[in-house]
Amino acid sequence: MNIGQQLFRTIWPLVREKGEHTAYCVAIIDQTVLPHEWRIITLDSVEQMVDAIRRMQVRGAPLIGAAAAYGMALASQESPSEQHLQAAASRLLASRPTAVNLRWAVERMMRTLLVVPEAQRCEYAWREADCIADEDVRINQAIGQHGLALLQRLAVGKPGRLNVLTHCNAGWLATVDWGTALAPVYAAFDAGMDVHVWVDETRPRNQGASLTAWELQQHGVPYTIVCDNAGGHLMQHGKVDCVIVGADRATCAGDICNKIGTYLKALAAADNGVPFYAAVPTPTIDWQIADAKDIPIEERDVDEVHIVAGRAENGCMTSVRVTPEGSAAANPAFDVTPARLVTSIITEHGCYAPGRLSDILQLVDPAIHPVTMQT
Ligand SMILES: CSC[C@@H](O)[C@@H](O)C(=O)COP(=O)(O)O
């Protein structure tokens, strides 16, 4: 994506000269300070990567996957021993439980690394992590093109602009580039379509209000931020032509686990006859899980509910408490939208009815997407 005049991905390796020999570190955009500050930070160890994922300096399912892959590369640079790699894998797997891309990437790295001699593991690890990052970009570009065809069909015979509602941030910041749910929007905008996005603020961390709004603004796409509860009202008044969301995990039955509040949007969309699309890259499909109730839902710190962070009038970052001291709070970070509420799933292989998502298995490389995995 272009920021100013410069092309950026959300994560990339950098050479770090260390005396005689060369080592790598990993650069990321710190998403905890956006949209108020553009800050690039570098990570030198797998432990720093675990911390960046946990604190959500990097976030969004596909980006978490790529970050975990680079985390494994950092680990192999520290020590290529199987013991160290296993320990690093366990630490990464525990950092955020819901986005299945993390497990997919860690298991892929382990399968790649454990079959090569220790002396070659580091080199293989950086190459495989780069490969995962490059693949993510290609996948999202393809999702953009398939989603564009859907939007073009919706626009036929419709006067005025096409209004898309999205929840959370499933744009380029949530991936290595392009985004999942927003890739069709960028493709439509770049193709000259008159497209506008309703951006759910997405409490409690406000990824919509802070990140989605920021990246749409960078690209020049018209958008309007609305509070989380406005979507149903907008749909009742014919102001939403479709909903597009991302996913942190999809079951092969087509159930979509995504940011908390997605389910309510799907219910409102079904009640109002508004198409509800989920943009799902293949690494986000969990081939092992039969029942969506088995998806681990991350419970985050309740302070995210009690305390809101932002920029004060003096320009400094600040945080304020919005709840009475002593209040109980709960903070489940994701919910599941049942397949019956999903109109279509946009993947890099095309659009699928939720009940046909498992057809993708015939198209994918079983070495990269094994149906039964082992750690
Ligand atoms: C393209 S990413 C899809 C999802 O990861 C996104 O919608 C989302 O829920 C992100 O959650 P986050 O908690 O910010 O990592």
From TrEMBL:
<feature type="binding site">
    <location>
        <begin position="258"/>
        <end position="259"/>
    </location>
    <ligand>
        <name>substrate</name>
    </ligand>
</feature>
<comment type="function">
    <text>Catalyzes the interconversion of methylthioribose-1-phosphate (MTR-1-P) into methylthioribulose-1-phosphate (MTRu-1-P). Also catalyzes the interconversion of 5-deoxyribose 1-phosphate and 5-deoxyribulose 1-phosphate. Part of a bifunctional DHAP-shunt salvage pathway for SAM by-products.</text>
</comment>
<dbReference type="GO" id="GO:0046523">
    <property type="term" value="F:S-methyl-5-thioribose-1-phosphate isomerase activity"/>
</dbReference>
<dbReference type="InterPro" id="IPR005251">
    <property type="entry name" value="IF-M1Pi"/>
</dbReference>
<feature type="site" description="Transition state stabilizer">
    <location>
        <position position="168"/>
    </location>
</feature>
<dbReference type="InterPro" id="IPR042529">
    <property type="entry name" value="IF_2B-like_C"/>
</dbReference>
<dbReference type="InterPro" id="IPR027363">
    <property type="entry name" value="M1Pi_N"/>
</dbReference>
<comment type="pathway">
    <text>Amino-acid biosynthesis; L-methionine biosynthesis via salvage pathway; L-methionine from S-methyl-5-thio-alpha-D-ribose 1-phosphate: step 1/6.</text>
</comment>
<dbReference type="GO" id="GO:0019509">
    <property type="term" value="P:L-methionine salvage from methylthioadenosine"/>
</dbReference>
<feature type="binding site">
    <location>
        <position position="96"/>
    </location>
    <ligand>
        <name>substrate</name>
    </ligand>
</feature>
<feature type="binding site">
    <location>
        <begin position="59"/>
        <end position="61"/>
    </location>
    <ligand>
        <name>substrate</name>
    </ligand>
</feature>
<protein>
    <recommendedName>
        <fullName>Methylthioribose-1-phosphate isomerase</fullName>
        <ecNumber>5.3.1.23</ecNumber>
    </recommendedName>
</protein>
<dbReference type="InterPro" id="IPR037171">
    <property type="entry name" value="NagB/RpiA_transferase-like"/>
</dbReference>
<feature type="active site" description="Proton donor">
    <location>
        <position position="248"/>
    </location>
</feature>
<keyword id="KW-0486">Methionine biosynthesis</keyword>
<dbReference type="Pfam" id="PF01008">
    <property type="entry name" value="IF-2B"/>
</dbReference>
<dbReference type="InterPro" id="IPR011559">
    <property type="entry name" value="Initiation_fac_2B_a/b/d"/>
</dbReference>
<comment type="similarity">
    <text>Belongs to the EIF-2B alpha/beta/delta subunits family. MtnA subfamily.</text>
</comment>
<keyword id="KW-0413">Isomerase</keyword>
<dbReference type="InterPro" id="IPR000649">
    <property type="entry name" value="IF-2B-related"/>
</dbReference>
<keyword id="KW-0028">Amino-acid biosynthesis</keyword>
<feature type="binding site">
    <location>
        <position position="207"/>
    </location>
    <ligand>
        <name>substrate</name>
    </ligand>
</feature>
